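fyi for ur records
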Amino acid sequence: MGTDNTGAGNADIDIGSFWKAISQRAVGATVVTARSSAGPAGFLGLSATHVCANPPTMLVSIDTRTSALGAIRESGHFAINYLPKGAENVVDLFGGKTDVKGADRFEVGRWGMLATGAPVYQDAVGVMDCRLEETLERHGTIIALGTVVAIGGDADAAPLVYFRSGYLS
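which gave:
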């Protein structure tokens, strides 16, 4: 695959082309959740990954306009839920593809909790329940780092994979 390095400044890259390039990577469909005094909150968090194993640390990118950001900041925790095949409706809810908002999103599927109180999807392939350690802000995005305090999930379940703005079978 060739790369054109002419005009290498980021001002030459339009947002549509950037998102198209990002969609070329397959990722596990992931919902990030928290529970504040206002109740449960969550969003589709396709930019969630590990940072290191010792101590177990995760990173999630959060648009500053995301309503769940307040719940994460207030509660000091978040859970990363790797969704299983068949949970496309959950992705659609938390990805804003429906009219369902806020805590009503948690009416679909089976939800519980681990150590922090953040909602965890009980049929998830994997869950990382994290205590918020630090946040950084860059260009309208919050980068949240969290120490994993509990893990869960069904290691035998098949993951729901998101690729090119759709699902892989």
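The two ends are 26 Å apart (CA to CA). thats all i got for now
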